């Protein structure tokens, strides 16, 4: 009988924090600047420079730690991790080994059997490295240090996950917590959230862990799932054929959908950590901790519960709206301006999601203001514009955040409420379409739809469909 | 000298430090390192029971910056430190993906 295997997975997740400046200097962290325009002697590792810690980094790290049920290390410090690589100009990375800021936490994820706790071993603060561009033509590499010194937290889980589904649920949970805190936008594709997967297999029932490998360069949920399936199969094959799994770092190739071992010389895991003498220790007082605890936001679970109690909208809507804090903020602000919750939810669930999907955007990219959405809903409520026109106005509002009221006025999009003019148009449409009129009289109810369409067209879309329907039925 | 550094160790330290040593230099480095370790052993004779490990020389804590951008674009000056420059970037020997 074939043996059954269990996959054991632990994750190291790096998250780029949403600070304005780098962790140890006053350079901007803005993404997309021309190469090396956000650099200074500190983040390019010049001799004699002194790093000074960004207070906001500590506050974000504590916020994430509290939200993931960690114990905060109230006396913590930084260490140097030594390695040579051109993306790291100091030849060491400032990180935390001995006293990381957060320890012993957990998050709960939903699994088919109910909820499951995934342990968090530690969270530490560190600096990001620069970006290397390989110039194959010239046979050299080019370095851009704009990212060097951008603050990161690394969240190290316990080996508590058993499948790709659990890994993705765990990542989604972290993403949600961190986005709600505003500590990062957590975009895998853009690298503001990166996951390294530590994986081993063992026979079901075995007590000891198998030998693990570490996989890097996973930048989407899809590649994470593929890499986990592939690595599980590779390790089982080795074991079944009597070979040993070697502890190594493997790099995932998204194009080939396969991983390969990185050269061992480049992977010398001997970092000779020692305390960084340039950075004084950080002492977190009870008062500071309590102040941060007191200003933690309402997280998703609490928000869902409150929405259920407060707003008369379906659970499905609640799940989607609270999936993004930005979307939830827009929802609440629009409702606060007097719009009916279900109507606000409809605009977000239907038109907003459709445009986001079409343009491959995230909910975080929504630019229109709640004030303008409320105004648009008001215009349709008062039948100043019909729903087709409203959708057109919404498209423009989504792109440019225009004020729908003045836009409708300027473009002359108001519904024509002149009963006489409408009646005249309807009469004309009836006269012009004898065939449809006949069909209608012969019991083809659908024919009226065509006549409504013709009337709307003649009115350049600016009629109230209900009135058109009523008049048609009356005149037929 | 109580400590002896073997060839494998000096080879490994050389790799970590990215140093290429001649046979002569290796022999000298082995002697120097052994002497340093002897000195550390000497320190180890002290009774440090109950003494907190020191992590910083000065009794200073919580030196912070506020999260405000203070540096502008200083690329021109920064690139003066580069051995070579191309397209606004530092040119370094070809490296493998790491």
Give the CA-CA distance, first to last residue of chain B.
Answer: 40 Å
The 3D shape of chain A can be described as elongated
Largest interface: A-B, 55 and 38 residues
Q: Could you please say which CATH topology of the domain at 7-44 in chain B applies here?
A: Histone, subunit A
Write down the CATH class of the domain at 7-44 in chain B. Mainly Alpha
Count of discrete alpha- or pi-helical segments spanning 4 or more residues of chain A: 15
Which regions of chain A have little confidence, pLDDT < 50, spanning 5+ residues?
none
Q: What is the mean predicted local confidence, pLDDT of chain A?
A: 91
* Residues in helices of chain B, as a percent range: 25-40%
CATH architecture descriptor text of the domain at 7-44 in chain B: Orthogonal Bundle
* Net shape of chain B: flat
Order of helices and strands of chain B: HHEHEE
First and last CA, distance of chain A: 78 Å
Brief account:
The complex is a heterodimer of chains A (476) and B (98). A nine-stranded mixed sheet of chain A has the order 3-7-8-11-1-12-13-14-15.
Which terms would index this structure?
heterodimer, A: 476 residues, alpha+beta, Arc Repressor Mutant, subunit A, 3 domains, 3-stranded antiparallel β-sheet, 15 helices, 17 strands, 39% helix, 20% strand, B: 98 residues, mainly alpha, Histone, subunit A, two-stranded antiparallel sheet, 3 helices, 9% strand, flat
Describe the model.
The complex is a heterodimer of chains A (476) and B (98). Chain A has 476 residues and is α+β, with helices and mostly antiparallel strands. Chain A has 3 domains: 5-288, no CATH class; 298-411, no CATH class; 419-475, Arc Repressor Mutant, subunit A, CATH 1.10.10. Chain A has 15 helices and 17 strands. Chain A has helices at residues 55-67, 164-181, 221-240, 286-294, 300-310, 315-321, 325-336, 341-358, 370-381, 387-400, 404-411, 419-432, 434-441, 447-458, 465-475; strands at 5-16, 53-54, 71-72, 75-76, 79-82, 92-95, 102-111, 114-127, 131-135, 140-144, 151-157, 193-203, 213-218, 249-253, 258-261, 274-275, 282-283. In chain A, the strands form 4 sheets. A 9-stranded mixed sheet of chain A has the order 3-7-8-11-1-12-13-14-15. In chain A, β9 and β10 (140-144) form a beta hairpin. The longest helix of chain A has 20 residues, at 221-240. Chain A is elongated and about 90 Å long. Chain A starts with a strand and ends with a helix. With 98 residues, chain B is mainly alpha-helical. Chain B has a domain at 7-44: Orthogonal Bundle (Histone, subunit A), CATH 1.10.20. Chain B has helices at residues 7-16, 23-44, 75-79; strands at 64-65, 85-86, 89-93. In chain B, strands 2-3 form a two-stranded antiparallel sheet. Chains A and B meet through β2, α1, β9, β10 and β17 of A and β1, α3 and β3 of B. β2 (53-54) of chain A pairs parallel with β1 of chain B, so a sheet runs across the interface.
